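Hi R.,

Here's the chain you asked about this morning:
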Amino acid sequence: MIDFWVSVLALSILLYVLLDGFDLGVGILYGLARENRYRRAMMSAIAPVWDGNETWLIVTGVVLWGAFPVVYATLFSAFYLPLLFMLAGLILRGVSFEFRDKARHLPWVWDFGFGGGSFVAAFMQGTMVGALVQGLPLVNGNYAGGPFSWLSPFSVLCGGGLCLGYALLGACWLVRKSDGDIQSTAFRLIPALSLSSLAVLAVVFLLALTENLRVLDRWIERPYLLAFPLIGIVAGIALASSVKQRREKAPFILVAVTFAAAFGTFVLSFLPYMIPFSITINEAAAPQSTLAFMFWGEGLFVLPLMLLYTVISYRVFRGKTGTSPAYL
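And the predicted structure, written out as tokens:
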């Protein structure tokens, strides 16, 4: 049961990062767009799927709450403020998405809300990951830091890096779903976003190894972890080739592979810890009876239905989009 729920948690996090990552990335790029026709095309590209993407964040929270309550309590104690900011950003962008197309006065307010909310949500997610890598102050398994212990130059760097990565995902999604000027602009953005993301990722990786020597020791002990960065490098080279050839579907898939490789590197670098070098999987897991009870509900029915719904929705709304989110 523990292995099953660890797998479900990893899957839900990865799906959230990939799916909500690209629509947050489109939102970040939306905030930089100057023309209304560009903004409408960007909204149209994510209109059918953006709210469904966020359900994987809920799945992650539910799994943590039910299957790993110690981790849930620790993370919410440590990240109370960034989680509030993240949720505020997600709410603001959701409200702006619905109101912007109907606004007769001050549409710039909703434009700012959509772009700003997307940026804040992505940035907070990155800072929390950075704080986890850097290490949380725990005493006897309890969070012992202050309300701003998560905030550091390293976590801020991780927050900015994730924003760049999400923007790259968003640009690749626009290449896949748009055409004309929007697609051409997205193609032009991909190289710059790729290089920027790679530079930040390299700095974060080196800082993580030097600031936390236990991570470096694990890489020395587990040389097979190098397979994941190699996968990411190969995917990056293939991405550059696909952009040069103006291929529409390949860039998003290749960036998704790169994100998956980075996620695999992160997870395997800290296993069996869920809170790095503080709380292991076995220490965090709920009793077997609780895990078994959850399996008959969420594990056996809810999760498969969500996966099926996700596949069907992306298949139904495949193809190019117009410039107006017609469902509004």
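The CA atoms of residues 114 and 222 lie 42 Å apart.

Let me know if you need anything else.
M.
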